[in-house]
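This part of the workshop introduces the protein records we will be handling. To make this concrete, we reproduce a full record directly below.
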Amino acid sequence: MADIRERTETDQPAAGHDGGGEPSTAGRRRRRPFLIAVGIVVAVVVYALAFEHTQVDLTQISSETRRASLERILRALAHPDLVTYDTREETIEVEIAIPCGPEVTPHPDLVIEPSCGDPGESVTITGTGFEPREFVELRFVPDTEFDITLRLASVNADSDGRFQVDVVLPDRPSERAQTIRAVTQEPIGTWRNRVEVFTDANENGVEDDPILGEDGLHIFEVAGRVDVPAVALINPAGETTDFVTAGESFEAVSGVARGQVAIPITEERPDTGLRITGIEASGGNLSVTIEGPPGFDMSNWRASAYDGVTGEPAGTTFISDTIRLSPRISETARITFDKILETVFLALVATTAGLLVAVPLSFIAARNIMRDISVTVTNLVLILIAVPVGAALGVLASRAARDLVAPFSDDALALVGVLVVAVALAYGIARMALPTVEDHVPTRAERVRRAVLLVVAGALALVGLLVLALLFQSAGTAARSVLGWFGFVGSFVADLGEIFDVAFVLIAALAGAGVLAQLASKLGYAIRRRTPRSVVGVLDVVMGAAAGALWAVLVGQVIDWFYRIDEFRTVVLIPAVVGAVVGVLVALRGMQRGEVRIGLSIYYAARTVFNTLRSIEPLVMAIVFVVWVGAGPFAGSLALALHTAAALAKLYSEQVESISPGPIEAVRATGANRLQTIIYSVVPQIVPPYISFTMYRWDINVRMSTILGFVGGGGIGSILQQNINLLNYRAAAVQMLAIAIVVATMDWASSRLRERYV
């Protein structure tokens, strides 16, 4: 009992503490107000610094000038320039002296008070006699030899057609009077009678034969011969308001237009408010188009056709409908449509290119795939030496292939023959090197022979790829002119050929590096199997020094290319020595452990590259590519493709890292190699999220491409920047609306695709 009491007393926690030496709940509660107060103070200080650095100034909200500018911009954005009408510009000009001195001529409808002033002074402009609520733009026309105007203000007339506005005189002094111009735009357009018209077949002023008019005012039959069709537009009072011809002018010998000379429709005519703007004749049928002010009532108006030979009336049509303005899609809307398509396809090309690069790279950036990859020191140093040597041999092989194919490059049939021969030989040699049935263990000589045959087959395949690229270019160029509207398909084929042609050197270099690295790996295993360990150790150290020196010199050459050092000791000798020392140290450490775990090294290197590329904004990349390939969507596609490849590779690799390990262990238990394990256990788990990430990235690229246009990267951003710089916010609103519609549509489409397939 004494022991129990003693232990109980000993186990009692000290004051202010729980068991185990942790602070008691009561102590934490006493300190909580203090910690909260400290947190509040820290938050206040942090946000105070944030406001200071972001220059938050809410007093600007109350600025009348800024508020007026904001209202103007918001109203312009609320009226996107989607639909337009044909307009006729009318101007009123009044003189002003800057500074005072020259005499000025006043205008009754545009009064300036005072009529002169110094630059920077304000004057009041009063306008009268305008249309109710008509939009008026005031421009200053300086006294200069150049045809330029400066915008002063924009204003809407009131219900009485009157306005008054204060403007600041520009800094354009002159010894002569200058001009302030009030510009209005009156909408005009083509009006079409779409209801009922009547013909006056007997020329007696009676409406006969109701006919449905659909095209133009009406297509009606005319009697006699109409070699030079002409039409007179006649008002209800019987007066000829417009008399025009589609060919040579002539004089009407009868009818309402008797004695009047028809004016060719291409000539400038006095403004009558309502006039004929188009005449088409075919087989005795006339199609007449009329232009006039909106809402004009054409009831009881007539259109009379005249024979171009006799000058006599050939038929009359009564018009019994009110003409209406026919709006049309604005030029801004058409340009925006073209540019938004360009933006979507720019993002599509960039996403596709990034996808093709990111998918294979995502596996080398996945920790669970790369962490258990290790090689012997002998294999590692041999591979490090073989990779740059193989790449150099691949480049030389590509040049030899070009020289071989060059004599046939201008003859399509010869190229086809070379392609067939190269593919057939490559296939046959590959079948010889890789027999389907193995009845014995291959000897060393047979293995060497197979390796040589595989190298030859690969070289022939590269030749075939080069020939295919040339055929694509020639076929696409020929099809471009033959396909007509579908000529872009031929351009696409030609572009594919150019891509293969440009990438041929890179493909050859990678192929050479891969083949020589594989041979080096097999050589390394043979050396370790047949050579004493002490000799292998010496070889590892020597080859490690050589591999380190080789790669260090390559890095030095890259640095020399960027910084133009041009000093042998700095870019060759010192890097070679340092690289050799590092290579020896790596070889010695690898000899101690038996193997070198290169998987994690490749993983960290790949992650570093991806993070670096992702940290560079596509806007900066676009500037570089604009310099390289010129301004346009191609530069934007390259910039987005590079950033997309890095971003998708990271997302893909993280998805690979999060897969279930069970299928991997099950496939490995069957004896599958690494490639088979990836194909049968990893790929089925990552396809759905890969699709989701790709669609999401396409959505992002569409939004990013709008910014790339600001630096010449093509897409809708280019015209958006242009309109913003020109303060044309109505046009900018169209581009913003198009972007919003496209992004919303793509979001809906991607969600449906994810719902269906992911």
Notes: The longest strand covers residues 178-191. Residues 1-21, 190-197 have pLDDT under 50 and may be disordered. Residues 531 and 537 are 10 Å apart (CA to CA). The longest helix spans residues 487-530.
